[in-house]
Amino acid sequence: MATLIPETVDLSKYIEMRDGRPNIRGRRLPVMFIASAQQVNATSVADLAYQFTLNEEEVLAALLYYHEHRVEMDAQDAADREQSEKMHRQYAKKPSNT
Question: What are phi and psi of 93, to 5 degrees?
Fold first, then answer.
């Protein structure tokens, strides 16, 4: 008997929107944190689960959600970084001339 692979997966069991950004359901943990950690460190699913105190299903859901929404999430991440750098330049403590 052949196993059927669904065309779409309902990730709402694992992912919820908070302030317009996807997070792990029930946690204030953005999906982007998990995706970034995986990209930067080539971390395994098991290691990500341990690092973020999640189960492997939650990590896989986050990575799948990121994969399906990569363009939008990368654009939002870039805009957030730009805004953060702008705020840092504007409000960073300036050295005194004393």
Answer: -65, 125
Amino acid letter, residue 47: D
The domain locations on the chain are 37-79
The per-residue pLDDT for 58 is 96
pLDDT digits (tens, 9 = 90+) for 27-49: 999 999 999 999 999 999 999 99
Cβ atoms of 60 and 34 closer than 8 Å? no
pTM: 0.79
Beta-bridge partner residues of 47: none
Residue carrying the six token digits 């944190």: 33
**How far is it, in rounded angstroms, from Cα 48 to Cα 16?**
19
* Element at 21 (helix H, strand E): strand 21-24
